[in-house]
Amino acid sequence: MNKEIAIYTISDSIGETSQKLIGAVMVQYPDVAFRNAYRFPFVTDEQELVGILKDAKKEDAIVISTLVNRRLAQVAKEYSLSESLAYYDLMQPFFSMIEEKLHVQPIEKPGIVHKLDTEYFQRISAIEFAVKYDDGKNPQGFLTADAVILGVSRTSKTPLSMYLANRGHKIANLPLIPEVPVPQVLDQVDSDRIIGLICQPEKLVKIRSNRLESLGLGHTTSYTDVEKVRRELAYAQSIFKKYQSQVIDVTDKSIEETAYLVEEHLKKSVAKLR
Amino acid sequence: MNKEIAIYTISDSIGETSQKLIGAVMVQYPDVAFRNAYRFPFVTDEQELVGILKDAKKEDAIVISTLVNRRLAQVAKEYSLSESLAYYDLMQPFFSMIEEKLHVQPIEKPGIVHKLDTEYFQRISAIEFAVKYDDGKNPQGFLTADAVILGVSRTSKTPLSMYLANRGHKIANLPLIPEVPVPQVLDQVDSDRIIGLICQPEKLVKIRSNRLESLGLGHTTSYTDVEKVRRELAYAQSIFKKYQSQVIDVTDKSIEETAYLVEEHLKKSVAKLR
C-alpha cells in the first residue's frame, strides 16, 4: 500500500449510508489505504460544517455527505466549488429526481425516524426469537420459525440467524452432528422453510482450525480432519435430501450474501403459497 | 398517500448500499409511497441490464445503480441519457474522485469480498458471545465483555447487543429487576465498560403494553403500570450511579443510533487507557 486517502463523512444523522458506500468502494481498491476515521455525525451547525470542510481541504480528503438539510448541503456545495474540494453529496441528487417527478419536497428531518410501528416490534421479537432458538436449544421453535437453518459446525448458522433476525425474520437453527439424531419435530416443518448450509471441506477445515486456535487449542483433532469433515458434510447432504430443503453453499459468501439468498428463497415460497 | 414512485436498484452484487440510501431517503417523504420491490442484484449481463432499464422507463421509475463494472455502468448511463431515464449511479462519481486524486482504477470485482480475516472471525465470535451472555445468562461473561449493558425490561438490551455484536463488539447484557440483586461479579467490571439504558416511563409503558398484546395478554398488570415503571427506572438509575456507568436514554432512538453512542463511548474509553 503506497497510496492513501482520507475520507470524511458528514451527516446530520449517524451517517450509516456513507459508511456502507465507503465499504463497497474500499474493496475495489485493495492497494489503497483509506483513512476513514473522520466520521462527523449530527452536524447541524453551519460553522461546525465549514470547520470540517476546511480540515478536509487541508488533508486533500474526499468528503461524502448525507446531509438532509438543504441549507447546510448548499453551504457545503458552495464551499467545495470555490475551494475545489472533492465533495460528494449522496442525498441531494436523489431529492432532485423526486422533486422533478412528483413536485414534492423532503421534510428535511435528520435521523432515522424511530417509529414504534409494527415493523419495529417485529424486528425486536425476531431477534429475541433467534436468541431463544439458536443452536437447537428448543426444537419446538421450528414450528413457529419463518425458517430453520441446518448445518454442521462452523457453517455460520448463528451469525446468519442473527443477521436475518435483525431484518425481521424469525429464525431457528440446528447444528447437524452425525452421532445425534435430528429432532422429530423437524418432520412437521414445511420443506420450503428448511435451509441447509454447505461449505467446501477445505474451507471448513480452515475455519475450524482458526476457531481452535482462537480458543488456544491445537490443530490435530478429528474436528479439523478433512476426511472426517467430508463425512460430516455428506451426512448433512443426506439430511437436506431427506427434508428436501433449500441448500446454500456458503463457501466464499459473506453473511450478507447468504442472508440475501435465504430472503429470496423465503419470498418465493410465500409467493407460491398465495 | 396520493403520490407514488417506483425505485429500481441495480447492482452486480446484492445492492445493500442502495437499500440503505433508499431507506434514508424514504423517511424524508412521509407522504410518498415508494415502491421498492424492484431490486436487481447480480446483474452482469448487458442485455439483462438494458431489459431492466426499459422496464424502469415504462414505469417512470428512478433507477439507483451500484454497478462496479465500468462497461455496464457506461451502458446504463448512455441509455438513461438518450431515454431521459432518472438514473443515479452511486459508485462511478466516487471512482472518478479517487482516480483524479490517486490515478488508480478500481478492480471492478463485484460483491462484498468475503475474506476469512481477523475481522471476520472477530465478528463471528462476538455474535456467539452476545448470544451466550444475553439476558444475564452467565454473569462470568461480564469479565471478558467489551461492554455490559444494563436496563429494565424492554429497554432494547438484546437487539442492541446483537447489533453491536454484528459490528464485532463482545457484549453481555443484564436485566435490572428491583427484587433481584445484581451479580457480584459486576463489581469487577470497569465503569467505562458498563452501559445503562434508560427510557421515558410513558414510552416504556407503551412498548410493554404492545409486548403483552403481541403475547395475547391483557394490559392491566404492574408490568405496564406507570408508577411501578417509574420505580423500576429509579432503581435502575441508582444502579447506574453506584457503578458510575455511562447512561443512554433510548427514548425515540433507533437501535442504530443507540449503538452508535455505545461505540463512541467505547472508543473514548479505549483512547483514555492509552
From TrEMBL, chains A, B:
Q: This protein's superkingdom?
A: Bacteria
Q: Which family does it belong to?
A: Belongs to the pyruvate, phosphate/water dikinase regulatory protein family. PDRP subfamily.
Keyword tags? Kinase, Nucleotide-binding, Serine/threonine-protein kinase, Transferase
Q: Which InterPro entries match?
A: Kinase-pyrophosphorylase (IPR005177), PPDK_reg (IPR026565)
Name by which UniProt lists this protein? Putative pyruvate, phosphate dikinase regulatory protein
State which Enzyme Commission number(s) the record gives: 2.7.11.32, 2.7.4.27
For molecular function, the Gene Ontology terms on record are: ADP binding; ATP binding; phosphotransferase activity, phosphate group as acceptor; protein serine/threonine kinase activity
As for what it does, the entry says: Bifunctional serine/threonine kinase and phosphorylase involved in the regulation of the pyruvate, phosphate dikinase (PPDK) by catalyzing its phosphorylation/dephosphorylation.
Q: Which organism is it from?
A: Enterococcus italicus (strain DSM 15952 / CCUG 50447 / LMG 22039 / TP 1.5)
UniProt binding sites for ADP: 151-158
What range does the record give for the signal peptide? Answer: none
Matching Pfam families: Kinase-PPPase (PF03618)
Which reaction is catalysed here?
N(tele)-phospho-L-histidyl/L-threonyl-[pyruvate, phosphate dikinase] + ADP = N(tele)-phospho-L-histidyl/O-phospho-L-threonyl-[pyruvate, phosphate dikinase] + AMP + H(+); N(tele)-phospho-L-histidyl/O-phospho-L-threonyl-[pyruvate, phosphate dikinase] + phosphate + H(+) = N(tele)-phospho-L-histidyl/L-threonyl-[pyruvate, phosphate dikinase] + diphosphate
